[in-house]
From TrEMBL:
InterPro entries: SCOC. Gene3D superfamilies: 1.20.5.170. This is BZIP transcription factor. It holds the Pfam family DUF2205. The lineage of its organism: Eukaryota, Fungi, Dikarya, Basidiomycota, Agaricomycotina. It comes from Suillus subaureus.
Amino acid sequence: MSFNDFGAATAWGEPEQQSGDIVKDAIRKERILKEIAAAQGDLQALVARVHSVQSDVNQLISENSTLQMYIDNLTMQMAKRK
C-alpha cells in the first residue's frame, strides 16, 4: 500500500475533469477500483491482527491475575509462619 501520491488526489466531493476519452476513463476507474480493493484487503489484515493482539492481551491479563493470586497466597502463608 502506498500513500506517495496521497496529496495529489483531488479533494473529496470535488469532481475531476472529464478527459472525454472513454478508454482512459475506464482504465482510470479500473485502477481506482484495484486500489480500493487493495486498501480493503490491507484493512482486513489489520483488523485480523488487532483481534489477534487483543486475544493475546486478554490471555496475558488472565495469566497475570492468576500469578498475582499465587503471589498473594504465598505472601499470606509466609506472614502466618512468622
